Amino acid sequence: MLAKHRAWATTHAGLVRDRNEDSCQVASWRSSPAEANWRGSLATERLWAAVADGMGGHRRGELASSLVIDCIAEMIDEVSDDTDIHQLIAQANMRLFHAMAAPGGSPAMGSTVVGVVATGQRGWIFNVGDSRAYLLTGDEMQQVSVDHTPKLAAGDRRSHALTQSLGGTLTPIPLKAHVVSFDPRAVEAVLLCSDGLTDMVDDDEIEALVRRSPDDPAQALLGAALDAGGADNVTIVVVHMANHISR
């Protein structure tokens, strides 16, 4: 009998932007302008989810993020180690550069990405850019992604410039995704999000909301981001791992 993970996903334009350039997918469910919220149980040997944030200030960010999710969805079943993830990211990156010159594309369109894939006793988190992943255990929440942004002096506000992205430049540059492995059996929940959440809500409040909103943590987090000003698109995926659901 397959274990059932519980998952929630939501994506929203926010209160300032005129369109949503984020995309996300959880297993077979995919966000779209017409369907931006989802919850369900995942009975599958391979759990996967990803969030892509089309880069602000670049044209066709919504196309860039959608292409990234498309590529992940097509290749995720082939992932069995770190090398496969790096190949997946490289393929998504090249797909963006090819799309720049195709009808409907735009030079330097780009996207961040953060994702998770887990099979039984093995799991991986991967990211490029500043969309984030957190792992929750019984007593802490830990950011396991890396923000690919310039290092700042103490006291400076976080930069939104990216040192790595999928696409985002006129010609390809060397790209190295951040990949970290984890044991799904030791994790209570996985949170993936675009910076529209983390720019508005600090980590302590994010953790508190996930823990005290078991019925729909994604909507609770979205509400907090909007209450704080909703300055950017907001996309959130929360997965409660099967080994902790009944506890």
From TrEMBL:
Entry EC no(s):
3.1.3.16
Q: Which UniProt keywords apply?
A: Hydrolase
Q: Does the keyword Hydrolase apply?
A: yes
List the Gene Ontology MF annotations in alphabetical order.
protein serine/threonine phosphatase activity
Going by the record, the broad EC class of this enzyme is: hydrolase
Which parts of the sequence belong to the PPM-type phosphatase domain? Answer: 4-241
Q: Which InterPro entries match?
A: PP2C, PPM-type-like_dom_sf, PPM-type_phosphatase-like_dom
One Pfam family matching this protein: PP2C_2
Its name, as the record gives it, is Serine/threonine phosphatase stp
Q: Which organism is it from?
A: Sphingomonas mucosissima
* Gene from which the chain derives: stp_1
